[in-house]
Amino acid sequence: MSKLVGTSPNQIPSNADLGTMAYQNYDTVAPVLMAGKKNYIINGDFRISQRGDYTSAYTNASNTTVTTVDRWQNRPYGSGSQTITHNKNITLPNGIKTNSLRIENGSNTDCSFFHIIQSVESEEWMSGRTFTISYWYKTNSTEMQPRYCDTIGCFKPDVYLIPDEEWHFISWKIPMPTNVPFGSGIQIHPAFQKKSSDPLDPGDYIEFALVQMELGDVATSYEWRSFNEELLLAYRYYQTHTVLGSGTWNGPSSFFCVVNSPVPMREVPVISTKSGGWSNINIEYDDAYNVTGGSVTHGSVQGSTDISDVSKFVVTLTTSGSQTTGYGGVAVCDRNNDWFVLDADL
Question: What domains can you pick out in the chain, each with its CATH number?
């Protein structure tokens, strides 16, 4: 007999209680009760945008992958571009105020599908489990279907988006394969392709909000997390900072900077800057702005394939100047609205 969830102090209900007591199988409800978070989509309400913002619309060039708001990537396939817009403070039919993301096809007629995705990091415990995807959407594209890729293959669930340009709520399921690897990407496409596989029409768009991926076969209410919680989840994959950290001169033109990440990153990150250059970096107190490059070097900690602990690492900044070996300093990016970027995204 399956275990039952009862109430304290009698965890197992008596036979007399069973006639009136509503109960669920313990093995079904326990993973939900014990889960650390319900929604495995990060930034499903589009509040986190470390790279910049898209309220004025951004033109995504043909065959070019861009990350829009955190954890969401788009790539137009075909010869034309698409427009990405990050809409803030929209109101859904249920009265909830939130943000949305809109992708609109350009004037080209050879774009095969929408390719706006979030890649959810897979783990072995997901093997054989069912997950439910849910979100609000509106579109004008006929016979549009979503898609998912489960680390083994890609599939379109047997659901269709309603093309009346009104907000609708939708949910569909992902039955995960029996052997899910650690660290691969489970791709979630809120909209993907027409049933007929015809290319998108000029001006076709998808707009969506409150995207959720949860364990189980029932869509429940959206899990709201604080801004700080959502940002820390996003930090596993991508971080921006104006202050990198303190360190020491390992040689006349080589500065070792110790970086302490707020959370373990997915893998050893690639360091760059928003501007793409290094001229806005200053190693205090020199005020020379003579940094010529940077990379994550020795001192980085990478765990096994199952557990990564990239939370403390060393960045080496090279300069065109000279400083006394052993002197200390602090690496900052403090002019021209520039910042450091640590990228470990899927």
Answer: 1-34 (no CATH), 58-230 (2.60.120.260), 236-343 (no CATH)
